[in-house]
Amino acid sequence: MEFRRGVERDEPEINLIAMIDVLLVILIFLMVTTTFTRFSEMKINLPTAEANKPQERANEVQIGIDAQGKYVINSTPVAYGSVANFAQELRRASAGLNEPVVVINADANASHQSVINVMEAARLADLSRITFATQGPTN
């Protein structure tokens, strides 16, 4: 007795629509929860300014910072020991000047921490007028 003689059997198949829905939900979840960090790959060019060279002012304290972290105050090399010691050197360099302006000449490859050290020392030395020197564009 064979009752199913004329009926063809359906082949089992995978429901693709449900699988695509699940994959899209997983993809959205991964995109939302993933953080992209590329801080080590960032290349930053420090700004350049186009302006005429300012005239020399008598009440400036010139501070130079090179790429190796060496400091110079008014063309005199200064060893950096701590912020307090550097503030004392800034007080000596600005003695006798009326409202001196601290001009920071930092190398493009100098660390930001070395610039912050100079700014903190200027704050401790009560030198509140700080400016940064930039260079013109090189063609």
Shape: rod-shaped
Helix-strand sequence: HEEEHEHE
Could you tell me the radius of gyration in angstroms?
A: 33 Å
Structural class: alpha/beta
Q: Count every helix, treating DSSP H or I runs of 4 or more residues as helices.
A: 3
Helix content: 25-40%
Question: Average pLDDT across residues?
Answer: 79
Q: Order of strands across the biggest sheet?
A: 3-2-1-4-5
Give the CA-CA distance, first to last residue.
Answer: 96 Å
Uncertain segments of ≥5 residues (pLDDT<50)? none
Task: Give a short synopsis of this structure.
With 139 residues, this protein is α/β, with parallel strands linked by helices.
Q: What this model shows, in words?
A:
The structure is a single chain. The chain is an alpha/beta fold and 139 residues long. Helix content is 30%, strand content 15%. The chain has three helices and five strands; from the N terminus they run αβββαβαβ. Strands 3-2-1-4-5 form a five-stranded mixed sheet, covered by helices on one side. α2 crosses α3. It is rod-shaped, with a radius of gyration of 33 Å. The mean pLDDT is 79.
Q: How do the helices and strands line up, and which of them pair or pack?
A:
Blueprint: H1 16-33, E1 60-65, E2 71-73, E3 76-78, H2 83-93, E4 101-106, H3 112-124, E5 130-132
Helix pairs in contact: 2-3
List keywords for this structure.
alpha/beta
